[in-house]
Amino acid sequence: MLLKLQNIGKIYDSNDILTIGIRGVNLELDYNEFVIIEGESGSGKSTLLNVIGANDTYEEGELYFEGMETSHYSESEWEKYREQNIATVFQDFNIIENLTVLENVELALLRIENRSERIRIAKSLIERVGLSKQANQKGSRLSGGEKQRTVIARALAKDSPIILADEPTGNLDVKSSKEVAALLKEVSKDKLVIVVTHNPEYFHQYATRKVRIYDGRVSEDTVIEKPDTSRKVEKKVVKPATKKQNLKNTFWLGVLNYKSRPRFTSLMSCALIIAAITVFMVLTLFSGSLIQPMTATLDEVPIEGKVIVSTEDGLLEEMEVSQIAGATEAGYFLEDNDISSFTIEIAKASGMLDAYTVHCVYAPYQYALEAGNAVLVLPSSASKDAETIKNTFLGANAGLHTIEVEKTLTSNQVILYIGYDDLTQNGKKIEAINSEMKIGDDTAIAYTFEINEALLPGEVNLVNSNFWDVKDKGVVLSVKANQAYTIVNDDELNESVSGVIVQMNAEDYNAIFNEVIVEGEESCLYFATDELAQAAIAKLPEGYIGLLSTSEIFVQDAGEVFTTNIIYYLALIAISFCFAMIISIIFMRSIKIYQTDFTVYRTLGISRRISSRSLYIQMALMFVPTLFLLPLISFVATVIPGSGMTFISLGNYIFIEILMLLIVEIVAYGFNKNISGQSIRKSLRRGSK
Q1: Which one of 32, 55, 384, 436 is CB 3.0 to 4.6 Å from 680, fit for a cystine?
Q2: Domain boundary at 418, 433, 448, which?
Q3: Residue 658 neighbours by CB distance under 10 Å
Q4: Nearest C-alpha neighbor of 418 from the set 446, 399, 433
């Protein structure tokens, strides 16, 4: 005996109101039977079918399958029962409308590992039900009869001993109903076919048995034709799927879910990208305005391989530095560290995007520059102002004649790399560009300096002055703060230069700008790498101290900075968490459109483990575009004029991507958890189609 129902009862509990679905049902059903079940609406016909098909539970009695009790079955055992023994044809079709006919049928063939073989079998079954021309059409484009044929082909694909059909002709016209009835009879050989119907006229000619349900009980059980028991039905031995096969099925199903609704997946991917961009902008705000570094490099622009040398005895003389350089095998050296790195301020003028602090740096291993040549490196977002910045230096008559411009995406610093000759011979002139001068209580900017032999020592002229009547007044220049000069003239103009030119006597000029550097409080040694530089520090003679330019030192009030940063980071985490929850809730509501699909998978015997894991794959595929688009968007942001943004850091990129992946996987987890406790009957009733 294939199936035996002994005093089967099903009770529904809805808001503490108990309703009897069926009670005291006793039936014995076997191979080669074509059973039709009739009865009034609400009498319990579909409930009985759901219990037999394990689409719902039973609370009373016992269901025997091949003589074995099933009341003790676990969820995995019921999955195996559905997978190996049950094929269902639903009144509402429950075809997955976003998949093609071929894909719908292939879902029932996952027990076959070879994909080509699955497709071959699916096509042959589709041809058998007369849908070869529609094989590649989506279910949403099929007529009612074609959908029902597709579901029958899917049921055939399972090759199960039991076929359950719940009102298979309920939504069909007369012609289609007769065709479906004949088709079910055709496939009933060596199987048990149970049809619940309100239209018995289509099935009477094929039925071997008629069962009537009234008020949840069997009121009639009539054998029309005894089944042929002379032919022994061999039970098929189903090999358990290997881990490899389950893994392949999981990925295949995940990809299938992903591509089945391209509009939905595109919208979700776009939502994730927008979320990622939002988090990126928030992180940029935090890191740029709120989060302050606790440490800083010794040089504001750290130079690879640079060693800053000092001594406890005071100043380092040129000969002394030369000897230290020889002892440590330094490639280059500078007597005075002050000229190795300094800054020039360039104010925002009409047509400029921003004001800039230009770091003038000597880095011989990065840029080996000849006299008069320099390299300007600036963010791509500042490209529009490159010429203005460059001309500021070229027009100052400070020894620079050619400046090459390079753009960067990874730094928002503006750096001018200068060669050794220009630093030692013209360093003071370059450093004096846009320097301050004080006239009484007023402060102004001196763009550049030049010699005027007509002036006496201590006298200066201001060319392009924007001051009102400052003749005979005293002025103090920041480049020579220990001396006051007298303004002789302030009404000359030089239209070829946009800033104020300070003219002075040759003696005064040379005293400021042509002073030979022979000593310094700190000197610099240069090596090809920090590793070589670190090794050289160990070779320094006794009494000398060496530190790498890239050395990290704590900023002032580092403890307060640390505390403030912790508060900001906690705020950032809280904001990110809330943001992730909001996005997850939106996704959770949207993902419910897959509820029917995943419930149909369960009716096909696809294990919950495979279907649930396939959702993780599907959601991960929605997430994948952010991996590529976030860096691209970050790149675009860096080249937007005036943005001042740098290319996304590796740490921020990893944080954002983990957050986005966490969002989609939380959604997948929530969806799986939501449907895990529901019976198939409830899920199909609530799912979207």
Answers
A1: 55
A2: 433
A3: 10
A4: 399
